[in-house]
Design a protein that fits this description.
The chain has 396 residues and is an alpha/beta fold. It has helices at residues 22-33, 45-48, 52-62, 79-91, 103-117, 191-209, 216-238, 243-263, 267-279, 283-298, 303-313, 322-339, 355-366, 381-391; strands at 15-18, 38-42, 66-70, 96-101, 139-143, 155-160, 165-170, 178-181. The strands form 2 sheets. Strands 1-8-5-4-2-3 form a 6-stranded parallel beta sheet, sandwiched between helices. The protein has a two-stranded antiparallel ribbon with strand order 6-7. Helix 1 (22-33) packs across helix 3 (52-62), helix 6 packs parallel to helix 10 and helix 9 runs antiparallel to helix 10 (283-298). Bound molecules: nicotinamide-adenine-dinucleotide (NAD). Residues 44, 46-47, 50, 75-76, 101-105, 107, 144-145, 147-150, 153, 155-157, 185-186, 188-189, 193, 197, 200, 283-284 line the site of nicotinamide-adenine-dinucleotide.
Length: 396
């Protein structure tokens, strides 16, 4: 990459603390060191049933930190949960937000924090609308899925079920104060989420690396995350008892988050958000299914970088001209996804999908202002519609 005519910024404002048992050992100390004595703990019912939340509450309470819990976050958190969380935060006189869970709980925690100092409907603060005022209450993020990287990013994705839309809160104020990366907390993650969230991290790394806004620092992080995921995600999926593979995948997802928080994501995300909003497909799974289709479309615009990714999957591809190596990446990724039992398209959905659905998805994808312009190949409406038709062969 030529550097001389580039200018870029890299900001890594979130303190990342990694280690087995680190939450038990360090969370209370960190809060106390910042004179925080009462927190809102945000999570979801699934995670509560694992016992993880009770352990954290007990640990904080023993350390004389008051904990108010809000465990009503649903996957793809909705505006309503954010508004309810705000009331509980204010009523409980909390001083910070601790979010424990996957991207849904972490994003809900960020949005609740935003909503405590930004009045009215959280919908009004989506990208392109009102700007977010800050500072917002400090955020302490504890991921329990290994995929979204949200614990280190400056965005939160919220769903508006009335309009079947996901919208993004984006502001430097959303960078968490501290992310606790504790592999132990992912041990109870069901296998299908290991696959979907791990693929989410892979999509983040690849989309960050080929992004129009990519720069050397985000590239270095993206390549390292891809290497770690390529080696460890299939092992973590196939052998849930392999603790080191789980640790590697979890840290890779954080590294991928650091990368895309500098450069952004692109067309895979523009297309997956509407699929989740209209059909409820989990975020990571939607990304994983869309990835090879978008790469095939994008290759021509950035094949040298796609070739670099291909070499990480199969070093022997270095013998080929880079365009051919880049083309082979599609097969490598399809094979990788097959090992994780990721479907090849959305034909498995039992929900009715019509031509009108394809139009709705297409319009929404084109309106994804934070990701669509970052794509290495400029996509037209017809081209996005064609990609959706390939992904939904059942559409009539
Ligand atoms: P999720 O948070 O929706 O969790 C999925 C399920 O896994 C839930 O039912 C949860 O209870 C369960 N779960 C989580 N951890 C568990 C554990 N250790 N043991 C047992 N069960 C566990 O899934 P996700 O994929 O992590 O997050 C998806 C959300 O994150 C989407 O809304 C997506 O848009 C958002 N996202 C945000 C960013 C960002 O930077 N803000 C990036 C990527 C994705």
């Amino acid at each position: 990459m030529e550097l001389i005519n580039k200018s870029f910024q890299s900001v890594l404002p979130t303190e990342v603390v990694f280690g087995k048992n680190i939450v038990k050992e360090e969370l209370a100390n960190k809060l106390k060191s910042l004179s925080i004595r009462s927190v809102l703990l945000v999570s979801d019912a699934g995670l509560k049933s694992t016992g993880i939340i009770d352990d954290i509450v007990e640990n904080l309470t023993e350390n004389e930190i008051k904990v108010v819990t809000f465990t009503e976050v649903n996957p793809n958190p909705e505006t309503q949960a954010v508004h309810k969380g705000r009331e509980i935060y204010i009523h409980g006189r909390c001083e910070a937000v601790v979010a424990v869970g996957g991207g849904s709980s972490i994003d809900a925690g960020k949005a609740i924090s935003v909503s405590t100092v930004n009045e009215g409907d959280i919908n009004n603060y989506g990208r392109g609308k009102r700007s977010i005022a800050g500072p917002i209450p400090p955020l302490f993020m504890i991921p329990t899925t290994a995929g979204t990287g949200s614990e280190v990013t400056n965005v939160a994705v919220i769903s508006d079920p009335e309009r079947n839309k996901k919208f993004v809160l984006a502001s430097p104020y959303l960078y968490p104060t501290c992310a606790f990366i504790d592999p132990i907390l992912t041990y109870s993650l069901p296998q299908k989420f290991i696959a979907a969230t791990g693929m989410d991290a892979l999509v983040h790394s690849i989309e960050s690396y080929v992004n129009n806004r990519a720069q050397p620092i985000s590239d270095a992080l993206a390549l390292e995350a891809i290497k770690m995921l390529r080696r460890n995600l299939p092992v973590s999926y196939a052998d849930p008892s392999n603790e080191d593979a789980k640790a590697q995948v979890l840290l890779a997802s954080t590294i991928a988050g650091l990368s895309f928080s500098m450069s952004g994501t692109a067309l895979v995300h523009s297309m997956s958000h509407p699929v989740t909003a209209w059909f409820g497909v989990p975020h990571g799974l939607a990304n994983a299914i869309i990835l090879p289709y978008v790469i095939e479309f994008n290759l021509i615009a950035n094949y040298e970088k796609y070739a670099e990714v291909a070499y990480l999957f199969d070093d022997s591809l270095r013998q080929l001209p880079s365009y051919q190596a880049a083309e082979r990446l599609i097969d490598c990724l399809k094979e990788f996804s097959r090992k994780l039992n990721i479907p090849k398209d959305f034909s498995y959905l039992t929900i009715k999908v019509t031509k009108e659905s394809i139009d709705n998805l297409t319009i929404d994808a084109l309106n994804e202002r934070g990701t669509f312009p970052n794509n290495p190949r400029k996509a037209t409406k017809d081209e996005v519609s064609t990609l959706y038709q390939l992904l939904f062969p059942q559409a009539k």
